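User: Reviewer 2 asked us to show a designed sequence for the structure in our supplementary figure. I'm pasting the structure tokens here. Could you produce the per-position amino acids so we can include them in the response letter?
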């Protein structure tokens, strides 16, 4: 399966109605991308913007007197390409070329240039400015993501765009201009889908290659409560909340088992998340909420909580309630692009 084959996800992630809603740009601006994500996304965005800008129609206004607005937009667009190149060098050792660009990106450039070629002359100026404004908004999101990563790493890699500004609102009443915006949004939706595939490609290849994940430095051992690391603790007696979560030490690509301890009479927090969970009750007695239903539980019982289902556990007994929560967090953490509560 190729990245291009994985992009037909209009049901899952339909194109946004405007650039600000595009999933790719939201993920970059909000800091939801990893270093691997940025190394994948930024070179493709860079190539696509520059390749479209190099089209003969966009490059036509060589003199300012021909079309002052279009001329200024193209001049600013070349400045954006320089900034894109700088950003790309920060996140990836390789550039995307005409040969290595993914098919959906080539389709975006080809379709866009066809729109420019077929558009009436009176519309081309607005379309040129619309493409440069598209590049400005994309680059702003890219540099925000790099700056966020730099802050997280305690470093400063690049300054935000300070020279020039957006070309401003562009009239889109003409069908050709509207089609260009649709083309841009479809490209960003395809890129977001390809990103999701890219996150899972390495694991998918290992599965298909029947490659074992056995590690010589991590032989099989008997796991039991108390041997892992405490990954989370919370105590709020005003809400009767008190619990601790211990993560078992193991290297995995899908399963992430945790031990949860809840004192008598207390709850853990009521929450939901992307990972599905099988709760196995090691000791104690209580009840567990899944969705709208409370289920009484005791030692040896197991209860399943689907993805995104509200759930909470209450210790109704006189001794500590200990349960094993077997999640697929390491999978969903890769699949889901957004703010993710790992607990």
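Assistant: Here is a per-position design you can include in the supplement:
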């Amino acid at each position: 399966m190729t990245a291009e084959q994985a992009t037909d996800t209009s049901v899952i992630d339909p194109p946004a109605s405007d650039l600000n809603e595009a999933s790719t740009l939201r993920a970059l601006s909000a800091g939801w991308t990893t270093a691997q994500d940025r190394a994948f996304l930024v070179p493709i965005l860079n190539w696509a913007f520059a390749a479209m800008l190099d089209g003969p129609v966009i490059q036509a206004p060589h003199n300012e007197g021909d079309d002052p607005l279009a001329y200024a937009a193209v001049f600013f667009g070349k400045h954006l390409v320089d900034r894109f190149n700088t950003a790309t060098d920060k996140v990836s050792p390789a550039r995307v070329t005409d040969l290595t660009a993914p098919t959906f990106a080539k389709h975006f450039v080809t379709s866009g240039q066809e729109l420019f070629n077929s558009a009436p002359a009176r519309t081309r100026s607005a379309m040129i400015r619309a493409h440069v404004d598209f590049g400005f908004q994309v680059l702003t999101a890219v540099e925000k993501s790099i700056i966020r990563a730099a802050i997280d790493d305690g470093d400063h890699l690049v300054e935000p765009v300070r020279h020039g500004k957006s070309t401003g609102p562009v009239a889109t009443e003409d069908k050709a201009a509207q089609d260009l915006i649709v083309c841009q949004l479809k490209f960003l939706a395809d890129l977001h889908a390809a990103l999701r595939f890219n996150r899972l490609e390495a694991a998918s290849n290992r599965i298909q290659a029947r490659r074992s994940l056995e590690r010589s430095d991590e032989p099989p051992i008997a796991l039991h409560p108390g041997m892992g690391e405490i990954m989370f603790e919370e105590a709020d007696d005003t809400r009767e909340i008190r619990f601790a979560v211990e993560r078992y030490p193991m290297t995995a690509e899908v399963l992430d088992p945790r031990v949860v301890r809840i004192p008598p009479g207390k709850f853990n927090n009521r929450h939901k998340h992307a990972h599905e969970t099988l709760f196995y009750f090691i000791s104690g007695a209580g009840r567990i909420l899944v969705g709208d239903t409370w289920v009484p539980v005791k030692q040896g019982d197991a209860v399943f909580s689907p993805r995104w289902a509200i759930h909470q556990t209450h210790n109704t007994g006189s001794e500590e309630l200990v349960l094993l929560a077997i999640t697929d967090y390491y999978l969903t953490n890769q699949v889901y692009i957004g703010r993710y509560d790992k607990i």
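For the response letter, you might also mention the following. Residues 3 and 194 are 5 Å apart (CA to CA). The helical segments are 23-30, 35-53, 68-91, 103-118, 121-152, 175-208, 329-335.
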